[in-house]
Amino acid sequence: MFWQTTRFRIDLAQPRVMGIVNVTPDSFSDGGRHDDASRALAHCETLLAEGAHILDIGGESTRPGAAPVPLDEELRRVLPVLEGALRLGVPVSVDTVKPEVMRRALDAGADIVNDINALRLPGALEAVAAHPDAGVCLMHMRGDPATMQQRPAYDDVVAEVSDFLRERLEALQARGIAGERIVLDPGIGFGKSVAHNLELLRRQRELLALGRPLLLGWSRKSTLGAVTGKPVEQRLAASVAAALAAVQQGARIVRVHDVAATRDALEVWGAAGLGG
Ligand code: HH2
Fold first, then answer.
1. Ligand 1 pocket check: which of 18, 54, 95, 239 to mutate, most ligand atoms within 8 Å of Cβ?
2. Residue 255 catalytic?
3. Is residue 189 part of a domain?
4. What pLDDT, on the 0 to 100 scale, is given for residue 151?
């Protein structure tokens, strides 16, 4: 299976590691570390040296209760880093919900749009459709970051996430965005309780019926804190375990902060012939 993106046709025969570059002052685990362009770009280079296959640049924190970022500020954060990252020879994704950021990023040459809102804001579908080869990740989120963790409830979380992702996949295809450009993400921690997130992991294979590759983001998330009792800066082992479990359950891309450790774990998994 492949993921078609602007400059790269990413071969997903092997699991791929997407390294997180948060150009934000307030991200939940690394806010403020890479919030100017040169530091963020240095972080891109570090992640590449650690073995990242894809870089994901975000200028707005999506942690529960995060303050919204105005358009101009998000563009100011993301575009200079994007421009530098595009010279590094790997696919570069931009993590945004804003159609105007998508449009500007794709015009600048971004390979992928990663939208936690699954292109639901007016103009988002059109922004991606206008670039015939751009890749896109559609993520499930119940509610929005301001309110999503207030008592999330589902009858069947896997069925509801699956129905949502199918509806969004069909909406994109109806706009002429080819399936091979699209990957799907159940959105760990986005309007879900600890039990919902763990059920999504246990039953993740059911989402493979959607026919598109799965991308999973477990890195350092609060469910891992709930399971281990550890604060965010002590969730490395839990994050690697979750990434490996996600791959074992059929994920083809994992979105992580700790690229080197995740790559090592995947090397062992692949060497044992457990890879796809
Ligand atoms: N999680 C976060 C942000 N973007 N995108 C996808 N596709 N899947 C995810 O699980 C996902 C995502 C949240 O993590 P992080 O970027 O580390 O934090 P913050 O949103 O606070 O910047």
1. 95
2. yes
3. yes
4. 82
Residue 35 has pLDDT above 70, yes or no: no
Q: Which domain holds residue 112?
A: 2-271
Phi, psi of 122 (to 5 degrees): -55, 130
The whole model's pTM is what? 0.96
Residue 106 lies in a domain: yes
CA of 62 to the centre of ligand 1 (A): 6
Q: What is the pLDDT of residues 67-105, one digit of tens each?
A: 889 999 999 999 999 999 999 999 999 999 999 999 999
- CA dist., res. 44 & res. 127, Å (int): 25
As for ligand 1, residues whose beta carbon falls within 6 Å of it are: 20, 22, 24, 27-29, 58, 61-63, 95, 114, 116, 137, 139, 185, 187-188, 215, 217, 255
What's the pLDDT tens digit per position in 165-187? Answer: 999 999 999 999 999 999 999 99
Q: How confident is the model at residue 47 (pLDDT cuts 50, 70, 90)?
A: very high
Residues ≥6 apart with Cβ < 8 Å to 136: 112, 113, 114, 115, 119, 128, 172, 177, 181, 182, 183
Report yes or no on 276 lying in a domain. Answer: no
Q: Tell me the C-alpha distance between 90 and 101, whole Å.
A: 20
How much is the average pLDDT of 207-219? 98
Q: How many domains does the chain have?
A: 1
**Gap between the Cα atoms of 248 and 106, Å rounded:** 32
